[in-house]
Design brief:
Structural class: alpha/beta
CATH architecture: Alpha-Beta Barrel
CATH topology: TIM Barrel
Number of helices: 11
Shape: globular
Helix content: 40-55%
Largest sheet: 8 strands, parallel, barrel
Strand order of the largest sheet: 1-2-3-4-5-6-7-8
CATH class: Alpha Beta
Length: 289
């Protein structure tokens, strides 16, 4: 069953996101981590590009290994950064040759040290353009997922603009979407309602960030615009360096969030793992799905 069909089948999907490690030792450790998730029967695992498209080759190699050797359905990120149409076409052709049929087109972050995204000559400025290119070149071969932001992208000026930008990606050919992580369920519910009012009927899967390290979480959240509610910040700051208490609190809070999302009809959960499977796997087991 293709991912788009499974998302519409009524059974909650389960997916995990990983990023390519820097060296061979990290690669094999990650490979074992992904393999350990197979008993959970994930719908797919996604693999990111590094900043500026710096890990493109590693991403391609990893998704191919996940498909062939582990037997879990992979989803490869594609970004506009550092790639023109010829390069993206070559990557798509390689995916098709290796029976990889799931992609997540993104604009991507600018290379380190650059504040503003500038496409290369012959490249793409927006994720919607990249989605349209994939569809025009490959038809229905790929299941295409896109990103969306219930608490709004840091560069978005208004809530209406967020929905309009999302709609451009959907109209270009997206099958489903995953959100940036959040800890306020109402932000997700309201965003979905706004999308439905705009005529967008595709599955919108909430993104989930387990909590294992508060300083790391605060840094990520400040950078991407994800809100950590004040009561959570105060509680986490109070634990200081007590990693066991942070982990226990995080498991309780995020599990409760996931229960609320699924009970209200969310089509699945997408875990941002930071290349660690233990917390995500424990949350899924607590949900007894």
């Amino acid at each position: 069953m293709r991912i788009c069909d499974q998302l519409k089948a009524g059974t909650p999907s389960l997916s995990f996101e990983f990023f390519p490690p820097k060296d061979d030792i990290g690669f094999w450790d990650l490979y074992k981590t992904i393999e350990s998730l197979k008993p959970l029967a994930p719908t797919y695992v996604s693999v990111t590009y590094g900043a500026g498209g710096s890990t493109r080759r590693k991403t391609i190699d990893l998704v191919e290994r996940i498909k062939k050797d582990i037997g879990i359905e992979p989803m490869a990120h594609l970004t506009c950064v550092g790639a023109d149409r010829t390069e993206i076409a070559r990557v798509l052709d390689e995916f098709r040759a290796n029976n990889i049929d799931n992609v997540l087109p993104l604009r991507g972050d600018p290379p380190q040290g650059e504040l503003k995204f500038t496409p290369v000559e012959g490249g793409f400025r927006y994720a919607s353009e990249l989605v349209a290119f994939v569809r025009a070149r490959t038809g229905d071969w790929f299941h295409i997922e896109v990103a969306c932001y219930p608490e709004y992208h840091p560069q978005t000026r208004t809530a209406a603009e967020e929905v309009r930008n999302f709609k451009k990606k959907v109209d270009a050919g997206a099958n489903a979407a995953i959100t940036q992580y959040f800890y306020n369920a109402d932000a997700y519910f309201r965003f979905v309602d706004e999308c439905r009012a705009a005529g967008l009927t595709l599955p919108i899967v909430p993104g989930v960030m387990p909590i294992g390290n508060y300083s790391q979480l605060a840094r990520f959240s400040d950078a991407c615009g994800a809100e950590i509610p004040r009561w959570m910040r105060v509680k986490l700051e109070g634990y200081r360096d007590d990693s066991a208490s942070i982990r226990a609190f995080g498991l309780d809070v995020v599990t409760a969030l996931c229960e609320k999302l699924l009970a209200a009809g969310a089509p699945g959960l997408h875990f941002y793992t930071l290349n660690q499977a233990a917390l995500s796997g424990e949350i899924w087991r607590r949900l007894k799905l």
